[in-house]
Amino acid sequence: MLTQAPPVVCGACSYAIYVNPRPTGGVVLLRGSSFATEFLAIRRVRPPREGHWDLPSGFCDGFEHPASTAVREAREELGVEIELGDFTGMYIGMYEFQGESLPVLDCFWLATIAAGEITLDPAEASEYAWFRLDSPPEMAFRTMDAVLRDVMTSRSSVRLVR
């Protein structure tokens, strides 16, 4: 048990404990032309933000690069192989977990489906939909709203990977 809020140092072994942001990897999965670009969103089936639209993404495993996380999460959540395109950015956000607001560093890449048909993992999502980039729904997390705005703003330079 911690004797105070982090950062704190263990008196017995001198191990320092910090509350560092948790890294994530995710994708803005695109299809269509530059004038009618669509992105894929999935509907969350578990807290936090159950029932809201989400981008395929998740927390990095120990020592996993966020780009590898993005590819793994797309495979796990959608059942497809993806091809990563440009890195869109890293966004600082919050994630509610076990009664705490934890800081996160959400890293996103543009991506396209390279192989397979979408087959949702029912433990992750109840449905998926393609939305126009210029009229997205409210997303589960503010960082996702931000990355979609940024991709839309720079869409003239968005290059779809084929």
Topology:
Blueprint: E1 8-9, E2 16-17, E3 22-31, E4 38-44, E5 53-54, E6 57-59, H1 66-78, E7 81-97, E8 100-115, E9 125-132, H2 142-153
Parallel strand pairs: 3-8
Antiparallel strand pairs: 1-2, 3-4, 3-6, 4-5, 4-9, 7-8
Give an account of the 3D structure.
Residues 156-162 have low confidence and may be disordered. A hairpin with a 6-residue loop joins strand 1 and strand 2. The termini are far apart. The protein has 162 residues and is an alpha+beta fold. It has helices at residues 66-78, 142-153, and strands spanning 8-9, 16-17, 22-31, 38-44, 53-54, 57-59, 81-97, 100-115, 125-132. It has one domain (21-157): Nucleoside Triphosphate Pyrophosphohydrolase (Alpha-Beta Complex). Strands 3, 4, 5, 6, 7, 8 and 9 form a seven-stranded mixed beta sheet that branches. A two-stranded antiparallel ribbon has the order 1-2. Residues 20-153 form the Nudix hydrolase domain.
